Amino acid sequence: MIEDKWPQHAYTAAARDIAPALLGRYLVHKIGEKILAGRIVETEAYGGMYRRQPDDGSHAFRGLTSRTEPMFWAGGWSYVYLIYGRYCCMNIVTGSKGDAQAVLIRAVEPVSGLDEMLKNRGVSSLCKNLTNGPGKLCQALNIDLRQNKLDLCGDELYVIEPNNARRICTCRSTRINIDYAVKGKYFPWRFYIKGNPYVSRF
DNA sequence: AGCTCGATGTCT
DNA sequence: GACATCGAGCTA
């Protein structure tokens, strides 16, 4: 795999623009010599404004807290949080310092380290169930709270351009499981690759 | 210190 | 459709 890592300036745009741009790129978790990687097929943008409405679906909506601290950093850091006491979700912070925007990685297609992913997920053979959800992909790629607040320009967790990028059709929809967000539930900020079997829901 | 709940996944 | 499981965030 030729590494063509996204540099810091690739993360300075708004989450709503970077979320679709991440589709088709590879998310890489390097553990020592082991490479676990997945092709990003589904994302959601959080934070910022849509039609002059602030995003009440964002963790950062009510301001800076200890959990959401990395969301307020400049683009190019990881924000990993624990959900329901059992799973983790991985976000890529975007924008400028103080913007509090991030892109949730909701699904990937396994690319590298298949055996390791199967083991991490407790699954016996390659199937879409391996990485078709934000908690599942973190488990497969061995991403947990230890990977919170990592510099994506470092050498452990990062995004690369695949050298044989396929042409994709992008679909968009409202985001999953944010009914609590009075305004944000209507923002069309979920993006996914049309027809890809690893997308979490259609 | 106590209480509530969640950007989910798994099993029934 | 029930429920596991735990840290953050809020109230006091």
UniProtKB/TrEMBL annotation:
> Keyword set for this entry?
DNA damage, DNA repair, Hydrolase
Keyword DNA damage present in the record's keywords: the answer is: yes
Q: Which SUPFAM superfamilies match?
A: FMT C-terminal domain-like
GO molecular function list: alkylbase DNA N-glycosylase activity; DNA binding
Its Enzyme Commission number(s) read 3.2.2.-
In the record, biological process GO terms are: base-excision repair
Top-level EC class as recorded in UniProt: hydrolase
Transmembrane regions: none
Secretion signal, residue range per the UniProt entry: none
Identify one Pfam family in the record: Pur_DNA_glyco
State the family named in the UniProt similarity comment for this chain.
Answer: Belongs to the DNA glycosylase MPG family.
Query: Which NCBIfam families does the entry link to?
Result: 3mg
Could you tell me what this protein is called? Putative 3-methyladenine DNA glycosylase
